[in-house]
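Inverse folding, one chain.
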């Protein structure tokens, strides 16, 4: 009779422990890190991800190439300034004669030119760079979506690890309570010492499970912290837990073919590959421009200055004896008076520029006659690049199709597993309630009762893992359906 009373007390303790377990399962393990929501985690990861930053740089570079391709249509202009110093016997730039003096020579000029026609090379280059800008934008979008998916997976892994840890901690707490109760019963002589030893061995195993689950949770948080790449979350992170809905195991709303059709029209990787095919088309047109003439207009203006250009003035006359002439038997000297000129300085700088100012304009045509088949080779290479771009587009679609098929299969399998585990948990809950009643009535021993409880705890842990796995597999298909990743 006394033994029955003790068994009833132990049963009451077990019921109380089970209620405590249900109460503890509501709250996630505490964390000292700052709290963030799922959307905040995605935003932080996208802001700090190095690959995204590199993709942004590539996009900026593509934009600069596009802008420069447009600017190449504008006229070009250059200014030149030159200064030369000649020593010894030098060429006078104004008289074009050699003089035995040092001369410095300065010239100024401006040249301008514009391409009127070059086989639409500029036009096609602009179009090609515009396509590449759009392709880079889609590449960056695809990268951001991939990182967002990684953050969602890391987020769900943390929720799963927290729930697993709660179950393990609750199971350990119940077993420890059982040890306390069993010690009293052993001291009272109502239960054998082996029952207490079995419980202590069991709690050691359960504490190991708690340590393993805590390690799994720490690794899951570390994975999210590494994705965030933020010093604020360098040690730990505390999730603002969201209410994840219980997944429905009914068939997914769309079959594989429909998912693929939607993804083919919305996935940025597919769009980017198609744009690169169009870019390769423009590359062929650019290569063909080498067979066509190029017409340019040009204009130039300039002036020069030199210290060789002097100012001269008349300073008297010079008599020059040209010889004698005979007249009436007399030799008469022939003398000529010529003006004597002397240097009076150098012509002023700006006066020389004014005197030497000149300008010119003209047009030129460059007509290709024979380029040693270089243009033909460039066209053939451009065509090969287009074929390769088309193959890359086909490969992208094939990879997309395979990924969707794999994701759909994984989702279907995870749905079946979750459904089977849900049925298993329901059955084990009924079995555990029956075992609990029988144990309280003294109809079964503790070992049989504990086996039922352990099986139920393991089934619940597996069910939680299957739940989050199923949710993530479903989110992957939602992503291919162009649906938001929110819950």
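Residues assigned per position:
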């Amino acid at each position: 009779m006394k033994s029955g009373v003790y068994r009833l007390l132990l049963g009451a303790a077990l019921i109380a422990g089970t209620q405590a377990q249900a109460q503890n399962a509501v709250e996630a393990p505490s964390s000292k890190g700052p709290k963030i929501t799922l959307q905040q985690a995605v935003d932080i990861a996208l802001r700090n991800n190095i690959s995204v930053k590199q993709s942004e740089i590539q996009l900026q570079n593509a934009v600069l190439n596009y802008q420069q391709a447009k600017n190449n249509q504008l006229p070009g202009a250059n200014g030149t300034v030159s200064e030369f110093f000649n020593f010894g016997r030098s060429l006078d730039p104004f008289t074009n004669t050699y003089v035995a003096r040092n001369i410095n020579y300065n010239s100024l000029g401006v040249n301008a030119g514009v391409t009127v026609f070059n086989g639409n090379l500029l036009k096609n280059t602009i179009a090609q760079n515009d396509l590449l800008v759009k392709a880079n934008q889609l590449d960056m979008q695809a990268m951001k979506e991939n990182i967002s998916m990684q953050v969602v997976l890391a987020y769900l892994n943390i929720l799963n690890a927290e729930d697993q840890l709660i179950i393990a901690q609750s199971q350990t707490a119940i077993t420890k309570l059982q040890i306390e109760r069993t010690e009293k019963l052993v001291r009272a002589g109502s239960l054998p010492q082996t029952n207490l030893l079995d419980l202590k061995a069991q709690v050691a195993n359960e504490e190991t499970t708690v340590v393993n689950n805590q390690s799994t949770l720490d690794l899951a948080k570390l994975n999210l912290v590494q994705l965030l790449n933020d010093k604020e979350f360098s040690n730990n992170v505390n999730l603002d837990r969201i209410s994840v809905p219980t997944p429905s195991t009914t068939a997914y709303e769309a079959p594989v073919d429909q998912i693929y059709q939607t993804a083919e029209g919305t996935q940025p990787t597919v769009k980017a590959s198609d744009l690169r095919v169009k870019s390769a088309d423009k590359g062929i047109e650019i290569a063909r421009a080498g067979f066509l003439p190029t017409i340019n207009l040009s204009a130039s203006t300039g002036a020069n200055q030199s210290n060789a250009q002097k100012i001269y003035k008349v300073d008297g006359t010079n008599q020059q004896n040209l010889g004698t002439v005979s007249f009436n038997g007399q030799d008469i000297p022939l003398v000529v008076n010529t003006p004597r000129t002397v240097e009076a300085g150098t012509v002023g700088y700006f006066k020389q520029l004014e005197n030497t100012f000149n300008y010119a304009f003209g047009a030129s045509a460059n007509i290709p006659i024979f380029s040693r088949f270089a243009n033909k080779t460039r066209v053939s290479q451009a065509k090969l690049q287009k074929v390769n771009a088309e193959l890359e587009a086909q490969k992208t679609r094939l990879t997309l199709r395979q990924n969707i098929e794999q994701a759909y299969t994984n989702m279907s399998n995870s749905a079946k597993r979750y459904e089977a585990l849900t049925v298993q948990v329901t059955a084990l809950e009924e079995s555990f309630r029956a075992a609990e009643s029988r144990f309280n009535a003294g109809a079964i021993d503790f070992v049989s009762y504990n086996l039922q409880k352990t099986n139920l705890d393991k089934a619940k842990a597996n069910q939680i893992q299957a739940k989050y796995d199923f949710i993530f597999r479903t989110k992957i298909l939602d992503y291919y359906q162009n649906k938001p990743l929110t819950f």
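Confidence is low (pLDDT under 50) at residues 1-28. The chain has two domains: 2-309+347-480, 310-343.
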